[in-house]
Structure formats: C-alpha cells, structure tokens
Amino acid sequence: MKQNKADKKFYLVREDVLPEAMKKTLEAKEMLERGRVESVWDAVQRVDLSRSAFYKYRDTIFPFHTIVKERLITLFFYLEDRSGTLSHLLTLVASSGCNLVTIHQTIPLQGRANVTLSINTAGMEMDIEELLTKLRRLDFVEKVEVLGSGA
User: Fold this and answer.
1) What does each C-alpha distance from 101 to 63, 113, 119, 120 come to in angstroms?
2) pLDDT-based confidence at 149, cuts 50/70/90?
3) For 114-129, what is the mean pLDDT?
4) Quick check: 119 pLDDT over 60?
5) Helices (H), the chain
6) 119: three-class secondary structure by DSSP
7) Is 19 helix (H, G, I), strand (E, B) or coil?
8) Rounded distance between C-alpha atoms, residue 88 and residue 47, angstroms
9) Integer Cα distance of 62 and 81 in angstroms
10) d(Cα 101, Cα 123) in Å, to the nearest integer?
11) In a designed cystine with 97, which of 68, 70, 84, 125 is the match (CB 3.0 to 4.6 A)?
12) Which pLDDT score, from 0 to 100, does residue 65 have?
C-alpha cells in the first residue's frame, strides 16, 4: 500500500548527520528563496550538486525555521531574579515579530525563576535559531529550552 504525503512521518535530524546532497539542496533552496541566483541551474552549479539530486530532495528537506513558521512554540526559561528581566525578555520576543500567546512565571526561589512562554511565530522577522541565540545571550538567562511546537 502506497502512502500519500499526509501519511508520511517527519523527523528532526541534526545537520552533521545529513548526507552532503541534502545539505547542498538546502543551500540551493536558500539561494533561490533569497534571490541570490536566478535559476535552479545557477543554484546547483554554485553548490556543486546535480539537478537530479536537487529535485529528489527539494520537497523533502526543510530548515527547522520553516517548519515552525506560522506555528506556536513553547519556550521554557531559567532566569535570574532581577528587576526588569521579564520585561526585557518580553521586549526582545516582541521586537522579533512574535506574538505572546501565554505566559507563566513561577515564584522566584533562591534568586531564580522559571518562565514559560507560548509564542506565535507567524509574524517573526528572523528565524527561530536567531531568536534563540539572542535570548540565550541575555545576561540574566541561564537556559532556554524549546518545549514544543504545534499548529
């Protein structure tokens, strides 16, 4: 029995274990999306990939940020308990173009608080990896975890 696309399973896989042809397909797709090349031929030439490999993988591999686009993501934070930290965190999330859906903060204990944010990434102006990097760089953020995403 043949499966249709809706019946396929999806996996989240680290980049370092992907075959080169899949990595190059992602590079070529990005060049096309950003207008850095004019055609598939130009893109595959630049990344040293055959057109047949590109067409084999183009509809089967996607960067993480495109999968979570227009979805809800739940983030869990370990924060230092300092005045203004939550406000600063929320300002960064809002400036990325995300909409806050829910927020939950624990009572701070021993100088630490846990915050869970559910955000809608539909209007996000950067990819999720860039947002996570910016959040992790905040001096009061000890840890950020992606708890999940969904429609």
Assistant:
1) 24, 20, 5, 7
2) low
3) 86
4) yes
5) 20-33, 40-47, 51-57, 64-68, 85-95, 128-137
6) strand
7) coil
8) 40
9) 38
10) 13
11) 125
12) 63
**What are the tens digits of pLDDT across the range 27-63?**
999 899 889 999 999 999 999 999 999 999 988 887 7
pTM for this prediction: 0.54
Please name which of 74, 67, 120, 72 lies closest in space to residue 97, comparing C-alpha atoms: 120
| CA separation for the pair 56, 134 (Å, rounded) | 35
User: Can you tell me the distance from the alpha carbon of 125 to that of 5, in angstroms, rounded to the nearest whole number?
Assistant: 29
Q: From the CB of residue 103, how many other CB atoms can be counted at a distance below 10 Å?
A: 14
What is the separation, in whole angstroms, between the first and last Cα of the chain?
29
d(CA 143, CA 100): 19
Q: What proportion of the chain, given as a percentage, has pLDDT over 70?
A: 87
Residues in the chain: 151
Q: In degrees rounded to 5, what are phi and psi of residue 14?
A: -65, 145
